[in-house]
Design a protein that fits this description.
about 180 residues, alpha+beta, 3-stranded antiparallel β-sheet, 2 helices, 6 strands, about 20% helix, about 25% strand, Dynein light chain Tctex-type 5-A, Tctex-1-like
Length: about 180
């Protein structure tokens, strides 16, 4: 077996690729192509696939486990526990508050506080969306609604309604599972 090198000419000459393959002068009969007889490019062009690692990234070994999507959570979100946390935070914060225009800041503060407290329950892969609305109780009617597309097996919500002498608060926490 001998090694031969051929230079490509014509339109492929721009790539300046050298192709190597093994041939045998003693055996003129044809054999089926094997991997050792397939041309191997020296320099890569955009049409060739490289089996090298991408720059700065490691390809996983065969022993390493690949990360797969989980369509069902390992542990379902507890709406009862989240409801207790929301009730405790809202009751404590709004106990002595009278309705005023500063309630918009209070609703933002409550929303952030509720999300932070519920995140401490350590539910992996759940996205939390907290909605808090505070309004005046004096001769008012409020209708709230929401719509979402979600999976009934893994996504859920909980709500809490608070009232005192001058205001009401509606708190809704959505827990949406991220696959």
């Amino acid at each position: 077996m001998q090694k031969e090198e051929k230079q490509l000419k014509g339109p492929q000459e721009k790539m300046k690729s050298t192709i190597r393959w093994k041939t045998s002068k003693e055996e003129p009969q044809r054999k089926s192509r094997t991997s050792s007889q397939i041309p191997i490019p020296r320099r890569c062009s955009s049409t060739w696939m490289m089996k090298k690692e991408p720059r700065g990234q490691k390809l996983p070994d065969q022993d390493e486990k690949l990360i797969h999507y989980q369509t069902i959570p390992e542990r379902r979100f507890s709406t009862d526990r989240a409801h207790e946390i929301i009730k405790h935070i809202v009751d404590e914060r709004l106990e002595t508050v009278e309705y005023s225009c500063s309630c918009s800041g209070i609703s933002k503060e409550l929303s952030d506080c509720i999300k932070t407290a519920v995140k401490k329950l350590l539910y992996d892969r759940y996205k939390l969306v907290c909605y808090v609305a505070i309004g005046q109780l004096k001769d008012s009617v409020v209708n709230c609604s929401s719509r979402a597309i979600w999976s009934p097996t893994s996504d859920t919500f909980t709500e809490y309604i608070y009232k005192n002498r001058s205001l009401f608060a509606v708190c809704i926490l959505f827990a949406v599972y991220k696959e």
